[in-house]
């Protein structure tokens, strides 16, 4: 989801792009491969996007989450440390306990409520040991069009598929984050060289129900009924908590994130509703 926008957000940079498979493959779980790739590329910075993000699989298979999010990140950290290269690590609001609907800031203390959050926090702790690092926490991610298997992509596909009644949770709060806006923000942050921890979600917060209503409006389907329900309606392996974010640190640097409603509307209308070319 995020990686698909790297070329667009960093169009002014020479890029060395890798993935877990394919022609330019680097598995972050392979320490030697990571060290070799970073040592050969000698980049100005490393943007570490690899992650195990299936929250329920993380809960069922904690070893899988640990290998990628904790040990894999540790491998990237060690390679950057050896090469003397700054690292950008994309993290998540799930590192917080989620016991309040008030947004978490960079000053709040992480205390994850599930395996996914704990594995991402472990990654943060490794990254924080680097002298030059950026830990950038995002919220409820959306983006990637066909790669979007999370909430926004699912709701759009259901409505486009003819569903006229949907249920959405209204007792948990988060901050939707457009993956493109996240990368544009990271690009600007890198230019400033202001290392540290940042929250980079789109401005504002909402429930899943409010987000679904905004999706319905962006699609122009006002007749679709969106019913608010409790999170108990959808029992899942991993506990879900509120994870709204706001930043105390971006404003003083002259950096802002646009409201989530504007970002969501643009994404739905330009990427998920774009005409199919013959």
User: Total number of β-strand segments?
Assistant: 10
Read across the widest sheet, the strand sequence of neighbours is 1-2-3-8
Order of helices and strands: HHEHHEHEEHEEEHEEHEH
Mean pLDDT: 94
Shape: globular
Q: Name the beta content range.
A: 5-15%
N/C terminus separation: 25 Å
Which regions are unreliable across 5 or more consecutive residues at pLDDT < 50? none
Q: Structural class of the helices, strands and pairings?
A: alpha/beta
Q: What's the CATH topology name?
A: Rossmann fold
Number of helices: 9
Helix content: 25-40%
CATH domain class: Alpha Beta
* CATH superfamily descriptor: NAD(P)-binding Rossmann-like Domain
Give a short account of the largest sheet: 4 strands, parallel
What would you say the CATH architecture is? 3-Layer(aba) Sandwich
| Rg from Cα | 19 Å
Structural domains: how many: 1
Which structural traits does this protein have?
278 residues; four-stranded parallel sheet; alpha/beta; two-stranded parallel ribbon
Question: What's the arrangement of secondary structure elements?
Answer:
Blueprint: H1 6-9, H2 31-41, E1 46-48, H3 55-60, H4 62-83, E2 87-92, H5 115-128, E3 133-138, E4 140-142, H6 151-160, E5 165-169, E6 173-174, E7 176-178, H7 179-192, E8 196-199, E9 206-207, H8 208-219, E10 225-229, H9 260-272
Parallel strand pairs: 1-2, 2-3, 3-8, 4-7, 5-10
Antiparallel strand pairs: 6-9
Helix pairs in contact: 2-4, 4-5, 6-8, 8-9
Tell me about this structure.
With 278 residues, this protein is an alpha/beta fold. The chain has one domain (3-272): 3-Layer(aba) Sandwich (Rossmann fold). 38% of the residues lie in helices and 14% in strands. The chain is built from nine helices and ten strands. The strands form four sheets. The protein has a four-stranded parallel β-sheet with strand order 1-2-3-8, covered by helices on one side. Strands 4-7 form a two-stranded parallel ribbon. Strands 5-10 form a two-stranded parallel ribbon. The mean pLDDT is 94.
